[in-house]
C-alpha cells in the first residue's frame, strides 16, 4: 500500500484522480492489482462449458457433451510455475528495468473465445477504483478483529472472509 501511495503521489499527485492514461506509469499499482487477480481472483472457476466432440487433453479422454469448467485457481497457484504462489508479491510482475511484466499465466477472465465479455470494462473500472482508493485513503485492519484466514469463501465466486478495515483520509 505504501509503495503504491508513493507511486500515485509522484505520478498523479493529489489534485486529480488517476486516469487510464496514467496506467503505464503506475507500474507498482498495476503489478499489485495483477497480483490480487492472481492470488485471490474473484472467479476461481470459469462458467461451465460443454465439449462439442470427443477430445483428448493431457492424457484425459473427454467425451462429447461433458460439462467442463476450467480451474483458473490452479493456474494461478501452480507452484511449479510461480515458485512461491502463496506469497503475495507484486514484484513478480515487474522487470529489472522497472517496467511491467505481463505474464500469460494470469488469466482471471479465462482464456480463448468464450473468455469474459466484460474484461476490458472490468480491468478499467477495477484499476480506476483501486488506484483512487489507494490515492485517497490509508487502510488498516481493526486490531480487535485479526484476519486469520485469507483463503476466502468459495461459492461460485470467491469472496473475502469477514473483515473490518479503517480508512484514514490522506488528502
Ligand atoms: C473483475 C471482474 C470480472 C471477472 C474476474 C470476470 C471473470 C469472468 C470469467 C472467469 C468468466 C468465464 C470465462 C470462461 O468461461 O472461460 C467470465 C465470463 C463472462 N463475463 Fe466476466 N468477469 C468480470 C466482470 C465482468 C463484467 C463487468 C461483465 C459485463 C459487463 C462480464 C461479463 C461476462 C460474460 C457475458 C461472460 C460469459 C462469456 C461467454 O460465455 O462467452 N464480466 N467472466
UniProtKB/TrEMBL annotation:
GO MF terms listed in the record are: heme binding; iron ion binding; oxidoreductase activity, acting on paired donors, with incorporation or reduction of molecular oxygen, reduced flavin or flavoprotein as one donor, and incorporation of one atom of oxygen; steroid hydroxylase activity
Q: Name one GO cellular component term.
A: cytoplasm
Residue positions binding heme: 116
One record GO biological process: organic acid metabolic process
Reading the lineage from the top rank, the first entry is Eukaryota
Keywords per UniProt:
Heme, Iron, Metal-binding, Monooxygenase, Oxidoreductase
Mind telling me which InterPro entries this protein's record contains?
Answer: Cyt_P450, Cyt_P450_CS, Cyt_P450_E_grp-I, Cyt_P450_sf, Cytochrome_P450_fam2
| Cofactor(s) it depends on | heme
- UniProt similarity note: Belongs to the cytochrome P450 family.
What name appears for this protein in its UniProt entry? Cytochrome P450
Amino acid at each position: 500500500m505504501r509503495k503504491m501511495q508513493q507511486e500515485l503521489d509522484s505520478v498523479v499527485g493529489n489534485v486529480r484522480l488517476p486516469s487510464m492514461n496514467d496506467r503505464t506509469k503506475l507500474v507498482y499499482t498495476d503489478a499489485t492489482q495483477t497480483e490480487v487477480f492472481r492470488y485471490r481472483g474473484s472467479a476461481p472457476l470459469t462458467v461451465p462449458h460443454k465439449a462439442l466432440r470427443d477430445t483428448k487433453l493431457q492424457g484425459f479422454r473427454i467425451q462429447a457433451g461433458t460439462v467442463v469448467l476450467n480451474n483458473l485457481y490452479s493456474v494461478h497457484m501452480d507452484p511449479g510455475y510461480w515458485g512461491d504462489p502463496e506469497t503475495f508479491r507484486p514484484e513478480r510482475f515487474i522487470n529489472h528495468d522497472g517496467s511491467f511484466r505481463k505474464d500469460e499465466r494470469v488469466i482471471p477472465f479465462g482464456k480463448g473465445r468464450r473468455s469474459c465479455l466484460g474484461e476490458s470494462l472490468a480491468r478499467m473500472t477495477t484499476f480506476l477504483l483501486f488506484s483512487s482508493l489507494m490515492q485517497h485513503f490509508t487502510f488498516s485492519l481493526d486490531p480487535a478483529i485479526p484476519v486469520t484466514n485469507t483463503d476466502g469463501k468459495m461459492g461460485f465466486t470467491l469472496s473475502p472472509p469477514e473483515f473490518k478495515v479503517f480508512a484514514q483520509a490522506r488528502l
